[in-house]
Amino acid sequence: MSASKIIHELEQIVGKKYCRTDQEARLTHSYDATPLFQAWPHVVVYPQTTEQVQALMKVAHREKIPVISRGSGTNLGASAVPVQGGIVMVFTRMNKILEIDEKNLTVTVQPGVITRQLHDAVEAHSLFYPPDLGSMAISTIGGNIAQGAGGLRGLKYGTTTDYVLGLEAVLANGDIIRTGGKLTKNVSGYDVTRFLVGSEGTLAIITEATLKLLPKPAFQQTMAVYFSGLDAAAEAVSAIISARIIPCTLEFMDQGTMKVVEEYAGIGLPVDQKAMLILEQDGPKELVEKDLAQMEQICQNLNATKIEIAKTGKDRIKILEARRTTLSALARATATTILEDATVPRASIPAMIRKITEISERYNVRICTFGHAGDGNLHPTCMTDSRNQDELARVEKAFAEIFNAALELGGTITGEHGVGLAKAPYMKQQWGIAGIHLLNRIKEAFDPHHLLNPGKIFYQSEEEKTCQNRPAHP
Amino acid sequence: MSASKIIHELEQIVGKKYCRTDQEARLTHSYDATPLFQAWPHVVVYPQTTEQVQALMKVAHREKIPVISRGSGTNLGASAVPVQGGIVMVFTRMNKILEIDEKNLTVTVQPGVITRQLHDAVEAHSLFYPPDLGSMAISTIGGNIAQGAGGLRGLKYGTTTDYVLGLEAVLANGDIIRTGGKLTKNVSGYDVTRFLVGSEGTLAIITEATLKLLPKPAFQQTMAVYFSGLDAAAEAVSAIISARIIPCTLEFMDQGTMKVVEEYAGIGLPVDQKAMLILEQDGPKELVEKDLAQMEQICQNLNATKIEIAKTGKDRIKILEARRTTLSALARATATTILEDATVPRASIPAMIRKITEISERYNVRICTFGHAGDGNLHPTCMTDSRNQDELARVEKAFAEIFNAALELGGTITGEHGVGLAKAPYMKQQWGIAGIHLLNRIKEAFDPHHLLNPGKIFYQSEEEKTCQNRPAHP
């Protein structure tokens, strides 16, 4: 069928207004939050119902057109870049919270709901959706699920995957499946629900989700701790966990990051210090205060230079602001900011930090490191300029070594950002040949024609490694 | 190759002593804990290393022989019955705890470790492996993982799947894969780790597992509450959760179950009451006591007839004994005890209990109901006699209606026991045709020749519905 006839068919499904082929729509959906990756889609559609998603998918299946589902595009692994063109399916119109079930402690949502709105809505019922993502003021829950998003409370509460109880999804052939439900226990057949979490839109298109909620913690308290040495900060992380304390947040920032944040936000960080930790505990007041006191003691024993415990809600927001503004601050500090996601067993955090420092010095590249220390999830972030090809080549080599170091320490190439295009070249190292073959066979089982977000996770060629300014398909 | 040559090859791999074709070995591995299902394997092997498992699997793959991996055989869905004969691979020799990592809060084990031994070993380090299975004095961790075992602490702590961080597994073609690791966060490729949990040995053979641990709760307290009406007991469950209390255990037993347990164990249960709840909370002492007091108040408001709070460790064990002995008591009370596993959203527990009562009366069958009320996970248990063919036919019809009722209430045909052979005929109702097709394609991706635990999960024919006394293959 001719391109114009297909477009006409898509218009019939979603309405002319919601099927766009103009340059503006195509340009704004040619990239996500990952620098250096861009590819143009042929058409951008905005479905409003599962039935519309199904009808669109059936056309795509018949015509063998790639389909890339997308929320707000905050992805950091180029997972939402339509590298083979085709249809970008945007879920901003499917943005309803369908039900908050207080008896079963669940919430059922459409994929386009903004994560922060979900938080606010359930908290109004004294309920709690723990995944606390850096991007949650913008990101959608559908994107969070597709990427298996992590965030700041992973250590105590786990990540998105721990809260997805049931899904409705459209398969590559247009079939609609429903998995799971409002159930604490369910072992009927394979766990397709959790398998779709983190599958980056390559296996199915999520059209509805039922999520687990917890009672909202009664109280929370936050503390910032500064150290004159990197090792002492890293050691504090280990000492806290070894003391059998599981704080809800345990964040790390190195001096480079602190300096950039201070320049950007001017919140009075002591930038002469080598590292800071942000610690938060939640739960019943007496318990929170006990844990805070114990963590304070541990940090003092490790010669922390300064400890600030938030006395008021305002104090707390100020401390957390340092962490929340990190990505924005880093992004504005240089022309090109490449944020990575190497993750290791938490006891290997000191070794990993030393390794990153050594590598960045050896390649003469500027790397600021921050991240979720309690999860072993670091974000070494390179401050560079994509116009400097020589430096960019060194950056790429440095990151390859950082990924290697993470794997050697028993870690992973991506803790929470996903593989997308950016990390696909490193998958073989992590999974081995047998593992890659298995992943390929699974992909084929779901999507034999490679229509769903093609080119992601599975590395195809050197050419795709950087698809910067890749032209649109005709 | 001839059967005797294949047996010789298997002997070469594991040693003659650990490759058995005698009638005793074959008989004792022809059934698991599920009544009415039996089928003889050709050979029983006991590997000691992953490399032996791999070598065995390569022979099976070459010769297209079914392989059923098995721990202690406590399964209640006939998942370990070798319905197509072949090789039963028993993991009792791979029973080592390889590492307790106190810094990363993980334990790495071989699959044959007895669950109770794992509990004891980590608790000696003040650590805690939450899944608390009814069968854990006998069951193995490999079996727990293969079945996605649930247990008594699901409401607060989740089930086995929430604690599996990494796996080593042998695929149907003999490939060895390693997934995950000592990582809180990991989104590198599909979540094969959790997908293998609950896959009942149909996708891969698990040879090693890394499990997540928590700090051991400082304190726990237990309470038994009796009610003169079923509805009040069911309402108490809802009222507790609605009050935003998440106890670690919230068990239910009806009068029929109480009577059987009392006859068996003689522990002084007030058998004139209609229902009992067993409630337990763990955590810091002050918090546990606060929750217990609040739950006591809720039960009093619902006119509980008697409340016993354990004052000593002995009291606690006595209360929990009522629950722990349930299966043994029911199993001995009649010739044939069929224990089911219908599970619903927890707010639907009252509706489900009413439905079970109505169905059992209509079919004139004796059903005792107990289970994990906090999880919506009920075990309606039929007391029957397999020699009474007329009654058995009514039992089968009653259970079919019970499964239907669970699905109508948004539930599942199996909360924690798995599908196996017993529930395979009901899978289509839960998944729909599109879902079943997808599960089939996934199975093919892992195991194209259907060598791994064939006949399970996927229902083939009426004949297989009861494979009682199925003869051994030649």
Automatic annotation (TrEMBL), chains A, B:
FAD-binding PCMH-type domain residues: 37-216
Keyword Cytoplasm: no
Highest taxon in the source lineage: Bacteria
Alphabetically ordered keywords of this record: FAD, Flavoprotein, Oxidoreductase
InterPro entries (UniProt xref): FAD-bd_oxidored_4_C, FAD-bd_PCMH, FAD-bd_PCMH-like_sf, FAD-bd_PCMH_sub2, FAD-linked_Oxase-like_C, FAD-linked_OxidoTrans_Type4, Oxid_FAD_bind_N, Vanillyl_alc_oxidase_C-sub2
SUPFAM superfamilies for this protein: FAD-binding/transporter-associated domain-like, FAD-linked oxidases, C-terminal domain
Protein's UniProt keywords contain Oxidoreductase: yes
Cofactor(s) needed for function: FAD
Annotated GO MF terms: FAD binding; oxidoreductase activity
Family from the record: Belongs to the FAD-binding oxidoreductase/transferase type 4 family.
PANTHER family the UniProt entry points to: GLYCOLATE OXIDASE SUBUNIT GLCD
Descriptive protein name: FAD-binding protein
Species the sequence originates in: Thermoactinomyces mirandus
Source species taxonomy: Bacteria, Bacillati, Bacillota, Bacilli, Bacillales
